[in-house]
Write a structure and sequence with these properties.
Elements: H1 2-18, H2 21-24, E1 30-33, H3 36-40, E2 48-49, H4 50-53, E3 59-63, E4 70-74, E5 77-81, E6 87-89, E7 95-96, E8 99-102, E9 108-115, H5 118-128, E10 135-151, H6 162-167, E11 170-174, E12 177-186, E13 197-204, E14 210-228, E15 231-234
Parallel strand pairs: 1-15
Antiparallel strand pairs: 1-8, 2-7, 3-4, 3-8, 4-5, 5-6, 9-14, 10-11, 10-12, 10-14, 12-13, 13-14
The chain binds zinc ion (ZN).
Length: about 240
């Protein structure tokens, strides 16, 4: 894990040295703020505003300082799913302790049908991605026949671990919903920097509910994939 972190920091250093050349070379980098292992141990206050985050991408997921709900970035806007399920627009001045964003530009788009559960969705996506050695940004637009999503309650200091926060989650379920999954797939070698495998957040078409996806099934949907072959990692200051 240390080696991975080291490599990521080198990537960041390279990017800072050569300015926007990664974007100019068409590499469509994924921007990540903080590391999953750091969030998981209870580091819930970051210095990065959403105004700043928006310079690195307008599609993605994450959370807010104090772990105040689930974040979804979609079609150029950021949304906050509060613990009570309300979806609010995100102010530029709000800050995040963990976020992943990109300017979504998929190389691959396809239609999928009759996905029975989240494992089946992950299996379908596994068959579509060309390599498990890269990060992928994933967008799924469609009609869901079941979707179960959660949000978490805002915390005050001293902060508990993420595991404890999640044990107090609120869960929202719908039998039918039109909407969008915003997600990422992280490679196994990213363990600690991120969580290997898939991470999905959902936002309904009417932008009225959503959250971190726990379960889903769908009738038909359009899947779009972006291969993020470079990662721009900014580590949170320890305080
Ligand atoms: Zn999540």
């Amino acid at each position: 894990m240390r080696i991975t972190r080291y490599l990521m920091v080198i990537l960041l250093w390279s990017l800072l040295q050569c300015g926007p050349c990664l974007c100019e070379s068409g590499q469509k980098p994924l921007f990540q703020y903080s590391a999953y292992a750091v969030l998981a141990e209870g580091t819930y206050d970051g210095d990065l505003t959403f105004e700043e985050l928006a310079k690195h991408g307008d599609f993605g997921l994450g959370t807010f300082n104090g772990i105040d709900g689930e974040m979804i970035g979609l079609d150029g806007k950021f949304y906050q799913v509060k613990f009570d399920g309300k979806v609010l627009p995100v102010e530029d001045s709000m800050k995040t302790p963990f976020a992943m964003v990109t300017f979504f530009s998929p190389e691959k788009q396809t239609q999928v049908r009759d996905i029975s559960d989240i494992k089946a969705l992950e299996g379908t996506l596994d068959g579509l991605i060309p390599t498990k050695k890269h990060f992928f940004a994933i967008r799924v637009d469609g009609t869901f026949t079941k979707i179960k999503a959660r949000s978490v309650p805002a915390q005050t200091r001293p902060y508990p671990s993420l595991e404890k926060v999640v044990s107090g989650q609120s869960v929202f379920s719908r039998e039918t919903a039109d909407g969008t999954i915003v997600g990422f797939r992280c490679p196994a070698f990213a363990n600690g920097v991120n969580a290997p495998g898939y991470h999905f957040h959902f936002l309904s078409s009417d932008r009225k509910w959503g959250g971190h996806v726990l379960e889903c099934s769908l009738e038909n949907a359009k899947v779009a994939l972006q291969d993020a072959s470079s990662v721009y990692l900014v580590l949170i200051s320890d305080k």
